[in-house]
Amino acid sequence: MTESLEIAKNRYIAGKTAFENGKYRESVDNLEKASALLAKNTRFAGEVDIWLVNAYEAAGRSEDAITLCQQLSRHPHYETRLQAKRLVYILKAPKLKRPKEWMTEIPDFGAMSDNKSKTIITAKTAKSTSKPKPKEPEYVDLSQVNTKDNSFIWLALIVVTGTISYLVWLSL
């Protein structure tokens, strides 16, 4: 029993790490194996399955994510049920269409030959290592600066002094 729990914990950690590194298929594989080793009514199994829902969605398996979420909405652990209900709501929400100008297209370097991709990476690295030119100091024309005394400051100072004097006189 403890050996399978230890294996499940290791698979769970590997699945979380893979998910956080963007390796969603690997994450799904590890989390599915961890989930299979655990009793379904425990808090830890619920946590593993919540991560599995997220991995399914990230891997493009939305239907599997929704199905598992619906099962988890009847989980005996309250926090797992609550998270599952929230996730089902999010997963079933309609997908918004984003305008093309909001999107940044990332080029696929896998389709390029190795020599060409190294050249591009080297060229970009060379640009980023060059030092930026120091900016010249910006000079201000002092004839344009307002150097007159501000009468508001004197008025405020007189009012504050008068108020303090009045308060001192009242306290005597």
Automatic annotation (TrEMBL):
Lineage of the organism: Bacteria, Bacillati, Cyanobacteriota, Cyanophyceae, Nostocales
Keywords: Membrane, Transmembrane, Transmembrane helix
Record protein name field: Tetratricopeptide repeat protein
SUPFAM superfamilies attached to this UniProt entry: TPR-like
Transmembrane segments: 152-170
PANTHER family for this protein: ORF03 PROTEIN (PTHR36761)
Lineage: superkingdom: Bacteria
Entries under InterPro entries matching the protein: TPR-like_helical_dom_sf
